[in-house]
Amino acid sequence: MIKTKSLLLLCIFLFFSNSIITLIISYLPVYFDDKGFTGSEIGFLLAIGPLIGLFSQPMWGYFSDKYKTVKKTLLLCLTGLLISSLFLFKMNTFTSLILIGAFFFLFMSALGGLGDNLAKKTSIQRGIPFGKIRMWGSVGFACTSLISGKILSIIGIENLFYPFLIVVLMTILVGFTLSDASISSKPVALADAAKLVINKKLAAFLLIVLFVTTTHRTNDNFIGMYVKEIGGDASLIGWVWFIGVMSEALVFAFSALWFRRFQPLTFIIFASLLYSFRWLLMSAATQPFEILILQVTHGICFAVIYVASLEFLSDIVPNELQSTGHLLFLSVSFGLSGIIGALFGGFTLDTFGGSVLYQWLGYIALIGSIGLIVYRLFYRLAPQKQVYQ
């Protein structure tokens, strides 16, 4: 009974923590746009998060591994996020937003990764498919995107802080009830974590998959502005995210049925190719409803590549460094890609428009897909997690 209750609380926590991410990813670019910033300025502001996350995510992961607690690390990040947000949403100048944004994203950057890492460790401990736990994060993302879209269309995007504050407080309250999970009692030293960074197999994988995830993060940052460009409003942006992330939740939920049929890299290649087709089709969209239809493929793209990548990493990263490895993956594949995507996307959107932006994203994802196919041909899984070769 106690185990069931703790699992339920973890699912609720993932629901609310991903709701926080929804509000930032889906509406912060539109919030900045409403304040009068240009696409290039918004791209620069959004690049702060991934830039900070590039260093902070492995740092939080290392602290979590070293002190054997994901829960306390999460609560520390949530507290810092709450305090910094009180200042972020009061700022109106570009310079002030850069400065306070750095502190805000220092804590924000690790929230999703640490929550997913706790879910992964819990799934291993209890023999439950990771997707069945992680799906609740996607459900939270989807429901909040839809509800907040309707709320913001009424109260105005300038009042984004208020729904954000409510969700953060709810997440903190649930966070205190979480149970920690650990899959290794082996002590961790900083030198051990540093070896992950210089591992050739891991570095090559992260570099190649970066091409694909850059297109994903660019879309995260600018899909709301693209929807507005072709005639949508804040309410429609909520529907865009709701459809996309609910499809993601379904893929996570049924991951136990489809995932074991092929090796992880095969699924990663499949999802990467689908990303390419998806962006090319979006580049040709002229009406908002076309984006809504294409959002169904979001779940197949993101959930498949995410689950497969975590499984691939769990095979080559030692148990005692799972949090570090997981957040290292996020810092490169969704952090560095976020920097590139924000700057590249903002410039392209300003200069050429959304259609050209998505056309280029399609070609970039295709390059990544080809790179992964080549990597798959040369890759041979080393036994017993030999990541230090």
Describe this structure in words.
With 389 residues, the chain is mainly α. The protein has a single domain, classed as MFS general substrate transporter like domains (Growth Hormone, Chain: A, Up-down Bundle), CATH 1.20.1250. The protein is built from 16 helices and no strands. It is globular, with a radius of gyration of 20 Å. The chain starts with a helix and ends in an 11-residue tail after the last helix. It holds the Pfam family MFS_1_like. It is found in: Cell inner membrane. This is MFS transporter.
Topology overview:
Elements: H1 2-34, H2 39-66, H3 70-88, H4 94-108, H5 111-126, H6 130-155, H7 161-175, H8 190-197, H9 200-229, H10 234-253, H11 255-258, H12 264-283, H13 288-294, H14 296-316, H15 322-351, H16 354-378
Helix pairs in contact: 1-5, 1-6, 1-7, 1-9, 1-10, 2-3, 2-4, 2-15, 3-4, 3-5, 3-7, 5-15, 6-10, 9-12, 9-15, 9-16, 10-13, 10-14, 12-14, 12-16
Pfam families: MFS_1_like (PF12832)
InterPro entries: HcaT-like, MFS_assoc_dom, MFS_dom, MFS_trans_sf
Subcellular location: Cell inner membrane
